[in-house]
Design brief:
Elements: E1 12-16, H1 28-38, E2 50-58, E3 62-64, E4 70-72, E5 77-90, E6 103-113, E7 119-126
Antiparallel strand pairs: 1-2, 2-5, 3-4, 5-6, 6-7
Length: 130
């Protein structure tokens, strides 16, 4: 577990919980293994992941109901968030003026169901400095 709460990916909400809050929770090592499988293309072996046990909510993922309303698909789901910093990310905007590769370092997060070990979602975002 990291010492300070990790920054949630845009649109995600993490409410920290203790392992005792989810008695049948998988260990963090199982979540890391699931994240490595789900994020194989982004995984940087030289980096050490951090983990946090949370209640996960994705404010963007919604499911339509028969009455035309929408409900959150993931709301307060017990989950492990596996975070890896220093991941090379390609820019999605205009190319860099240097003529070199348009890559920066960022953060990738994988959300793993804390009970089933199932991959829920992943997100990568730029790391701001300053």
């Amino acid at each position: 577990m990291s010492s300070a709460p990790m920054r949630a990916a845009p649109g995600f909400t993490y409410d920290l919980i203790a392992p005792t809050d989810v008695p049948n929770s998988l260990p963090a090592s199982a979540a890391i293994q699931a994240a490595q499988t789900a994020g194989a293309m982004a995984w940087v072996k030289e980096r050490t992941p951090t983990t946090e046990l949370v209640l996960f909510t994705d404010e963007k993922a919604k499911t339509a109901q028969p009455d035309g309303t929408f409900v959150l698909k993931y709301a307060k789901i017990p989950a492990w968030v596996v975070q890896l910093e220093g991941v090379p990310l390609a820019h999605s905007g205009p190319a860099a003026s240097t003529g070199g590769p348009d890559i920066s370092l960022g953060t990738s997060q994988w959300v793993i169901n804390a009970v089933t070990g199932e991959f829920i979602e992943g997100e990568s975002f730029g790391t701001t400095t300053g």
